[in-house]
Amino acid sequence: MSSRPPNLTFKLVLLGDGRVGKTSLVLRYVNNSFSEKQQATVQASYLTKRLVIEGVPITLSIWDTAGQERFHALAALLVYDITDNDTFVRVRKWVKELQQMASKNIIMTIAANKSDLVRSKKFDIQEAESYAAAIGSKLFLTSAKSGTGVEEAFLDIATRLLQNKKNSVEGLSPAPPRKGIVIVDEPEKEPPPKCCS
């Protein structure tokens, strides 16, 4: 009797400026849906997606943090709006933060989102491709609206997470430390109320 491989759960966090389409990407991937009137994310939320890669059942816990809470993750999908270069500049800042506080085994993938808004197929993504390669990442052109590249980006992350897990279990490389991505943006604490006697 053959034993089934255990279900692996991996946490993935989405990072990027507001209005770049993080929530829309997750909804496209998990529910295959898109809304033109997607509200800005105001509180942290997560969705899960179950899939099987190389015969191994995997659950991706995908966190859209809204920059409010503290979360641990093994991978980050860094999202920017391909029509707004300032959002790509912010991705570079996120990468620097992740490199300082996460282990070297953290998976980072960059999504150049809203590719459906670019009229010409001749837009320049060479800088983003070069940057992704330089940090050991991959760049995916995505469109939450049309679905282009969305499945591929998430599947690439899941596949690399599985490979890292296999390598650490099989001793092919040292096990990564139990250190993940920690996003901290806690609200200021209010002073305790003064009590009268």
TrEMBL record:
Gene Ontology molecular function terms on file: GTP binding; GTPase activity
One matching Pfam family: Ras
Keywords: Nucleotide-binding
Stretches for region Disordered: 168-197
InterPro entries referenced in this protein's UniProt entry, alphabetically: P-loop_NTPase (IPR027417), Small_GTP-bd (IPR005225), Small_GTPase (IPR001806)
Keyword Transferase among record annotations: no
Protein name: Ras-related protein Rab-21 isoform X2
